[in-house]
Design a protein that fits this description.
This protein has about 240 residues and is of the alpha+beta class. The protein contains 8 helices and 14 strands.
């Protein structure tokens, strides 16, 4: 990049399935011809939805934006526990799914509300003695993980079509929706994993109408740059 473009701000992107958050960062770097690009909150390859991309001086407020609450819509597949707690993992155990009443589901979901401790999954970027847990998991190793304090502000069961349960959850930074799905399956006695996930909001930013990865790749440069929010615009939106 001999002649790097100087651009500062935030770009909202709808991450496509099957790609990493870093893939979106790499595409943004290439499209905008600028090196200083980051993202706010990793989305697993399985997941889609809102990815906040920070550019130039926008990277200075990355931690601030990452600390805000998130909203997700997801689907739990009951009856199957997997190595990664989501559909990308290998099935470890299968059990029959009981005839669960809506009342029982309401009771279990309601148990995850407010502050509680959540044990991060082995397939995660958290480090143990400097090594990411997912690398240890690939070696077949399991290590003790320290439970983390997380918070759920609200939830909603959107649809029940056993063995699947669709839900919406508003949660704090650091919350693992995969683990949420896994733990709900455990409490039902049949196991479960996260089949699908979409981040619909982060702080005041919402996924509706944001730039898709395909648009990011194919739109003319000036059209993409027009979608980059300036830092004053971001501050106004956040009410700062």
């Amino acid at each position: 990049m001999k002649y790097e473009t100087i651009i500062d701000g935030v770009l909202l992107v709808d991450k496509a399935p099957g790609m990493t958050s870093h893939d979106v960062v790499a595409i943004t770097r290439r499209v905008l011809n600028t090196r200083k690009v980051g993202h706010c909150g990793t989305l697993d390859p399985l997941a889609t939805g809102l990815l906040i991309i920070t550019i130039g001086r926008g990277t200075k407020i990355q931690d601030l934006l990452m600390s805000e609450d998130k909203e997700y819509v997801g689907t739990i597949r009951l009856g199957q526990s997997t190595t990664s707690q989501d559909a990308d993992g290998t099935v470890l155990e299968e059990k029959p799914v009981p005839e669960v009443t809506r009342g029982k589901l309401d009771e279990i979901f309601a148990g995850f509300h407010g502050d509680f401790y959540q044990t991060p999954p082995m397939v995660s970027a958290i480090k143990k003695d400097g090594v990411p847990l997912y690398k240890l998991a690939r070696q077949g190793k399991t290590v003790e993980r320290e439970p983390r304090l997380v918070h759920i502000y609200g939830h909603e069961i959107l649809n029940v079509a056993l063995p699947e349960v669709e839900f919406r959850v508003v949660c704090s930074k650091g919350f693992y929706v995969r683990t949420y799905a896994h733990d709900i399956g455990q409490l039902l006695g049949c196991g479960g994993h996260l089949k699908a996930l979409r981040r619909t909001a982060s702080g005041k930013f919402r996924a509706d109408g944001v730039l898709t990865v395909e648009e990011l790749r194919t739109w003319p440069l000036e059209q993409v740059k027009a979608r980059v929010m300036s830092l004053p615009e971001v501050s106004r939106l956040r009410g700062v």
